[in-house]
Amino acid sequence: MQPPISPQGRSVRPVRPVRPVRSVRSTRAGRSRAARIASVASGGFLVLANLLTAFMAALAVLTRPEGPWDHHGLQGITTMGVLAAAMALLVLLLTLVPVLLRWLHPFWLFVPAVLLVAALARLEYVDATWPEDDAYQYGSAEPAPAPMG
What are the UniProt keywords, alphabetically (predicted)? Predict the structure, then answer.
């Protein structure tokens, strides 16, 4: 079969259609409205949860006891560390849902994981640096007296 001939007498080659390049905007536009709303809602919730967890972890990390006799300071650090670790683990598990549904990028798992490691590292550091000693049990820096007998 002969290719078609143009009015100028030359043969005309058929033109292949050009595929459009997918941009970020066209990819986002392909998502449903419900998926976009779920993405924004879960992202907003997780931002607030991560900020609360970061505040608790910062309290645990930045608080310094006055010494080994400061049981109230150590108890506060331990309490905030445990709460920050528990909250970070909860947020990490809650972040898995929108990531697995592809509403959010897997990078969202990084923030609660870092906060969990920071809280656990602070708890381990406090335990290694200021071990509990029975001599300081009642607020006295002096050793307990030996029993008579």
Answer: Membrane, Transmembrane, Transmembrane helix
